[in-house]
Amino acid sequence: MYLEQPMKNDNCVRGIVAWGLAAFVAAAGAAPAAPPGEWHSQAHDDANTRFSALADVNTSNVSRLKVAWTFSDGTQNGHEAAPLVLNDTMYLVTPYPNIAYALDLTRPGAPIKWKYEPTPTPVAKGKACCDTVNRGGAYANGKIIYNLLDNHTVAVDAKTGKEVWRTKMGDVGRGETMTMAPFVVGNKVYVGNSGGEMGVWGWLAALDVDTGKQLWRAYSTGTDAQVMIGPDFKPFYSWMVGKDLGQSSWPAGMAQRGGGAVWAWISYDPQLNLIYYGTSNPGPRVPSQRPGYNLWTSAVFARDADTGMAKWAYQFTPHDQWDYDGVNENVLMDITFQGKPRKVLVHFDRNAFAYTIDRTNGEVLLASPFAYQNWSTGIDLKTGMPKVVPEMQPKPGVKLPNVCPPDIGGKDWQPSAYSPRTGLVYAGIFNICMDLTDHPQSYIPGTPYDGMEMQRYPAPGGNWGEFMAWDPVAGKKAWAIKEHFMTMSGVLATAGDLVFYGTADGWFRAVDARSGKVLWSHKLGSGVIGQPMTYTGPDKRQYVAVYSGVGGAAMVSKSMPGFPPRGSTLYVFSIDGDSPSSGAGMLTTESGPVPAAPAGVTGGRP
């Protein structure tokens, strides 16, 4: 039986039993996670909850958090990944050039154990849509697995840093890149591509964890065979039932360059043996050039984790006219809804609606706005279709003012967190609108297939960001914190009844998960767009870590006064800043009198 370390504050409950809390999490619908003190994947568990059972850092002592140690990787672009921790080692993956580091947590200052440099082609930098970011790696079978910007997936030996395998997955010359974090179930690792603005053909693929061999690849658009749709595919809504809809809902010849890239998060339900993931915007982003629903872009898929065959799908924004995508995370949980137990996924879409969906069949149970929006009057729960405001549909060559939310949405890729202790989901969201102008766009392989021009600005209230707690059963906010800058980081929830998040101007905060009261804040050297995580060090102390390094979509507010410089520093916090660096292992010296100079020797130049 694994016991948490006793809390130092006598007012706190001591000795939380981790297996008991794990059972509570399981009852709430969460899939398996790494050991409580470790962090093996970006979301920590297969349900994408980003919840940690650690509670030594809690509401009573979080104000004592101080920097324990830092590490700079020297890469200045957007840092969107969380570190991984396995036993006594921390693993980091940088933005391009996608260097991996292993740090020794047993030694003062966590020195480098090994460094792996994959040297991806620099051509990829010119193809990346929105910065040369990387959303981190995953640990599986003794390997750290992650994606390179130039469309390779690599596996590195976790002990030595030696490359185990390297698999080419896409073509940079056609505008494809890879930025997502791999997701592992059993002997399969799932990866997808980026480039929805480049006319790519979106896909998700499964590779063998030990060899890197591709096992299957499912495209987001095209024929049923290409999308891996068979007789068992049963969407809940009738308008998504039919043969080859991924082809026939497009003009002739456009489906295979229609976007639907898979560049964000995957979840897994072990009881149903289903993986869940979202697809990106259709291409080109100019909707008048692609009449039809443009299936299966801006949608969520449920697929058999072994075979890859689709079981159901739901399109959040049919014929997406505003670049809203559907890639955001799907958090799995079990709830009681209208008196009945339901297995659900909770999804905060960029279209500014929060969905609670039955994950067994794709039925939308709830869909409520979580951010300011004016493109729709709501979601029809009988059909699953959004009610689009006609005046908010763009026309080529005509400036359409005050579209809310903008292309980056009411929330972008930055992942939320769920606490089974409170039943709430926590997310950083936006309060932004745009003026939109469309221009017809020709397709040239490897060049932008876009056509949208946007000017973004704050929505009513003047603030760009907000951090909220969301009730997925009631479909409404429990509380919210307004932020002047964008809240672009992921979220960490812990059994200490804390949630952690960061802002684009560099504030890292800890909040009471129940009340929404900010209990602690620390200003970092750059903006926070990474994902906080927590772990137990070899010294049995709980640490909280987050990268500082602004970039990605947060750069839309770079002209604001107070916007920070780029950065590349990992900050690791502990209570009072204690760590092996501050204890007996820290280097000390004894000072003494300076020896007298030999006779005839004087200072200065001879």
Question: Can you lay out the helices and strands and say which pair or pack?
Answer:
Layout: H1 18-27, E1 51-52, E2 65-72, E3 84-86, E4 89-93, E5 100-104, E6 112-116, E7 138-140, E8 143-147, E9 152-157, E10 163-168, E11 183-185, E12 188-192, E13 203-208, E14 214-219, H2 224-227, H3 245-248, E15 266-269, E16 274-278, E17 299-304, E18 310-315, E19 331-337, E20 340-348, E21 353-358, E22 364-369, E23 376-379, E24 386-388, E25 400-403, E26 417-419, E27 424-430, E28 432-438, E29 452-458, E30 465-471, E31 476-483, E32 492-494, E33 498-502, E34 507-512, E35 518-523, E36 533-536, E37 542-548, E38 569-575
Parallel strand pairs: 1-32
Antiparallel strand pairs: 2-38, 3-4, 4-5, 5-6, 7-8, 8-9, 9-10, 11-12, 12-13, 13-14, 15-16, 16-17, 17-18, 19-20, 20-21, 21-22, 23-24, 25-28, 26-27, 27-30, 28-29, 30-31, 32-33, 33-34, 34-35, 36-37, 37-38
Top keywords for this entry?
single chain; 606 residues; mainly beta; four-stranded antiparallel β-sheet; 38 strands; 3% helix; globular; disordered N terminus
Describe this structure in words.
- By secondary structure, the protein is mainly β.
- The protein starts with 17 loop residues before the first helix and ends in a 31-residue tail after the last strand.
- The strands form 10 sheets. Strands 1-32-33-34-35 form a 5-stranded mixed β-sheet, with no helix packed on it. A 4-stranded antiparallel β-sheet has the order 2-38-37-36, with no helix packed on it.
- A hairpin with a 4-residue loop joins strand 30 (465-471) and strand 31.
- It is globular.
- Residues 1-30 have low confidence and may be disordered.
- The protein is 3% helix and 34% strand.
- Residues 582-606 are annotated as: Disordered.
- Belongs to the bacterial PQQ dehydrogenase family.
